[in-house]
Write a structure and sequence with these properties.
By secondary structure, the chain is α+β, with helices and mostly antiparallel strands. The protein is 32% helix and 21% strand.
C-alpha cells in the first residue's frame, strides 16, 4: 500500500513538471485588459492605488509612470512594479491584487484613490 501511494505521488509530481504549467499560474491567471488591480504599498511609502489596466496593457503609478501588467500574474506584476521603482531609485515594497470593477470607470480613465 505504501508503494502504491508513493507511486501515485511520484507520477502526479512528474506530470506537473512535464506539463510546463506551474500551479501558481493555474491559481493566479494572467491579468487582462480592463481588469481592476489594487496596488498596496506594503512599506507604507504611499497610499493604496486602484487602477484599471488600459487598452495598451498598462497601469500608471506615481514616480514610475506606465507599467505593463496585462498578461502577467499578480505575482509577476508585483515583481515588475518593485523592479520599476528600484530602477528609478525609489525602492518600494508592493503587493498587487485583483479588485472589483470600480463604478463609473473605464479602461481609458483609470480611477485612483489617494
Amino acid at each position: 500500500m505504501r508503494d502504491l501511494i508513493f507511486t501515485i505521488l511520484f507520477v502526479a509530481f512528474m506530470c506537473d513538471s512535464v506539463s510546463g504549467v506551474s500551479s501558481s499560474s493555474v491559481t493566479d491567471p494572467a491579468l487582462r485588459l480592463g481588469e481592476c488591480v489594487l496596488i498596496h504599498f506594503v512599506d507604507h511609502s504611499g497610499p493604496d492605488i486602484y487602477e484599471t489596466i488600459d487598452e495598451d496593457s498598462h497601469i500608471v503609478l506615481p514616480i514610475i509612470g506606465q507599467v505593463r501588467v496585462a498578461g502577467l500574474t499578480t505575482r509577476q506584476a508585483t515583481r515588475a512594479i518593485m523592479k520599476a521603482y528600484q530602477a528609478v531609485g525609489h525602492p518600494r515594497r508592493v503587493s498587487v491584487v485583483r479588485c472589483e470593477a470600480l463604478p463609473n470607470t473605464s479602461p481609458s480613465k483609470p480611477h485612483k484613490i489617494f
